[in-house]
Amino acid sequence: MAAQTLPAFGAAVTFNTQRTRAYLLKLPLFTRATVLIIVLTWVLTLVGKSWNWDVKTWGALIPDEISIATLYRINTFPFIHLNIFHTILNIVAFTPLLERFEHEHGTLTSVALFFGPFATIPGLIYVFIERFILHANTPVMGASMWVFLLLGMEAIRTYKTNPYFTISTYNIPTWITPLLLVVVTAALLPSSSFLGHLAGLLVGYGFGLGYLKFLAPPEWALRFIEGKLNLLGRLPHYVSVDQNTFGRFGVLPSSASSAEAGIPFSGVSGGQRLGP
Predict the structure, then answer these.
(1) Active site residue ranges
(2) What number of other Cβ atoms are within 10 A of residue 23's Cβ?
(3) Is 242 in contact with 273 (CB distance < 8 Å)?
(4) What would the pLDDT profile of 146-171 be if each residue is shown by its tens digit?
(5) What would the mean pLDDT of 76-97 be, rounded to a whole number?
(6) pLDDT digits 0-9 by tens, 240-250
(7) Which domain of life does the UniProt lineage start with (predicted)?
């Protein structure tokens, strides 16, 4: 019997390894690039010490250090992490969320949003509250703000199709789930930024509800850039804005039968975009 368990265990390990490898090979372009930048930034934090360059001090979001000359921090802080544990934890949490977002909205949209409003809005909210309301100067870094932003968007999408989940006899709104996760994270990891996570979550709610979708790049511009530069043909793992969609904010029917039955596209959550 003992001789039989080892091959079975080995087969399971091989199967899991194959699934992991297959998943990694399917990652779209921007997701791959983001994970690579996070890893390379962590390497730079180690190598930079020999160059007398503190990458964390240079790129972290430090409220009192924000000025016209240092606005780059708004885009650099999500890629910088405290230590290897922080780096791995955020990569594991962020990768599947970003991969799903990119597959749904396209690579070019993802680049524009994550280097645009998805970074600047929660970052500036954090700086404003820290600097002018709390009169504090707590530095933050890490991709967890993006994690909660995407969780907020997912929670709103889930709420539209499944408004409640039941615990005992209580109906709890599904949109509140990431908010509870923010509180739990703050309790389990006291060094994490409750305010930073909350800022990301609020922006995710805003995009999920459609209030902030006007900040997304116009579809005609994305189509023009894709076609002009032939990005889909030149870049491996690139996801087109139009791939499997009826417009960037449109959705597909879940099946041919649902389309024939006249079910409106906006009622199907699987392909829903940034706004309702």
Answers:
(1) 144, 197
(2) 12
(3) no
(4) 999 999 999 999 999 988 887 778 88
(5) 95
(6) 987 544 333 33
(7) Eukaryota
pLDDT at 130 over 70: yes
Backbone dihedral region for residue 33 (phi beyond 0: left; psi -120 to 50: alpha; all else: beta): alpha
The predicted structure's pLDDT at residue 49: 82
- How far from the centroid of its chain's Cα atoms is residue 151's Cα? 8
Residue showing tokens 């199709």:
161
- Give the tokens for residue 142: 């890490």
What distances in angstroms separate CA 42 from CA 79, 118, 171, 204, one per listed residue?
Answer: 8, 22, 43, 26
**Residue percentage of the chain with pLDDT more than 90:** 62
Q: Which stretches of 78-163 are assigned E, i.e. beta strand?
A: none
Tell me, yes or no, if the pTM score tops 0.85.
Answer: no
Query: Residue 227: exposed, middle, or buried by beta-carbon count in 10 A (0-12, 13-18, 19+)?
Result: exposed
Q: What are phi and psi of 175, to 5 degrees?
A: -65, -20
Beta bridge partners of 140: 61
Query: Whose CA is closest to 38, among 76, 66, 67?
Result: 76
3-state SS string over 208-272? HCCCCHHHCCCHHHHHHHHHHHCHHHHCCCCCCCCCCCCCCCCCCCCCHHHHHCCCCHHHCCCCC
Residue pair 205/156 in contact by the 8 Å Cβ criterion = yes
According to DSSP, residue 83 is labeled S
Judged by phi (left if over 0) then psi (alpha if -120 to 50, else beta), residue 166 lies in beta
